[in-house]
Amino acid sequence: MAPISAFDQYLEEDYKVNRIDDSLQTFTSVCSNPLLKNVHLVLFLNKIDILQQKIQAGIKVRKYITSFGNRNNEYHEVSEYFTAHFHQVHRKNNADRRRALYTHLTSVIDTQATQDIISNVRDSIFRGYLQDTSLV
Ligand SMILES: Nc1nc2c(ncn2[C@@H]2O[C@H](COP(=O)(O)OP(=O)(O)OP(=O)(O)O)[C@@H](O)[C@H]2O)c(=O)[nH]1
Predict the structure, then answer these.
(1) Which CATH class name applies to 2-107?
(2) How far, in Å, is the centroid of ligand 1 from the Cα of 1?
(3) Where is GTP bound in this sequence (predicted)?
């Protein structure tokens, strides 16, 4: 789980490290861990409600993440941009393409939507097990 609303925040323990970069570094460690080589990953990009509020308040992503450049400072473009970065980290650390990454944009304070997403994730994991055993 990574908070994608945190693009304008820095670590308390190191004020030079942007919190999105910190999440990407943590995710790189997960993806490059040999013990997790064959484990499918489910990533919740969380706090999208706060991301939407920040964007509506006019906070510019490019001020904090210069690589965002002149893209539109609107929710869909921003969330797609950050999601793509996490997928890129996964791709770089998944040379044999055996592992899947499932990403979900979440706001866990919306308990109904979160419950629906978790049910879908659980269903797809079970479906994967059944396919592996050729039962479906
Ligand atoms: N608005 C909103 N608040 C959330 C969401 N997820 C967690 N929180 C709240 O954020 C606060 C911190 O919780 P977490 O983010 O789980 O904890 P954390 O990772 O230690 O906190 P941060 O470092 O601030 O991200 C709590 O008050 C949560 O209720 C979300 O999707 N939307």
Answers:
(1) alpha beta
(2) 11
(3) 46-49
